Amino acid sequence: MSFDYLLSKIKNNNFLLIGRAGIDIYPDPPGTKTENAKKFVSFLGGSSANMAVQLKKFNGNCNLLTRVSDDALGRLVINELDKYNINRNNIKFEKNEARISFAIVETRMKDHQSIIYRNNAADLFLNKNDVDSAKIENYDCILITGTTLASEPSRSAIFHALNIANKNNIPVIMDIDYRPYTWKNSTLASEIYMKASKKCTGIIGNEEEFGILANDNNNGQKLAESLSNHLDLVIYKKGERGSEIFTKNYSFKKGIFKVKPLKPTGAGDAFMGALIGALLNNYDLEKSVEIGSAAAALVVTKVGCSSAMPLQNEIEEFMRSNKIHN
Q1: DSSP track, 187-215
Q2: Domain of 216?
Q3: Fewer CB under 10 Å: which end of the chain, C or N?
């Protein structure tokens, strides 16, 4: 493949996102510590669901493939996806006493706590039959989150999906999305991520995540650069120091938009969704990375993640009045 081919498939606006959808609750009002909370507010959560919401804000045609718990919270996820007009025909209920991904997240920076419950997580019961039922060959671009690789049967389902995508020349972009509490150990994570990366078209992650891929925190950046020899797009995010972007033909660096955050969560999902959305809307790669960075900056200034994903015109207005710091 090539970046031009990847771009052409993105512009067909036919996306399948594979990964978790869940529920996040926040102590209310903002700033409240969880242990002092008297009430909470709830929102749709989970990386793939959040990305889908952000991409939808760019008029992306988003279809989500996952499993949710067969209980009230699973049905709440379905209702929230309907609210955002995200296609959930490929979502199945997991009846094996599984539970939805559930997070308690504080809207505060000082001593921030995010408590995430992933025991017996419903989305990790995704299986090969689910992949076959989704008819992956009918989509033009697949976006996956690396948490799907953490355990079986989801791991085998994802490799099955990757094989189908490769056979049909469908580009796959993976957000590494490393969550240590879902893996047996980092060595296994490195092995599985590297195996999956060979079947992807693009990879996005932060310094820690590329360090996990390299199985060496000191060689993450070197690995990111080397992966661009066979991937069409690699984005190495460095937090406050911006990001480095590698393609087969060229590379460049981008800074960040400085804001006063309310919370530290949601930035990665906003970046991914807005980056793909900007490419969909005919922005070039450098501008699309800036738009992704602006979305990431905006989402941390608001309560929630899915609910905080900014509209395209909101991002553009923000960029007119704020400069990116390289």
Answers
A1: HHHHHHHHHHHTT-SEEEEEHHHHHHHHT
A2: 3-17+46-65+123-321
A3: C
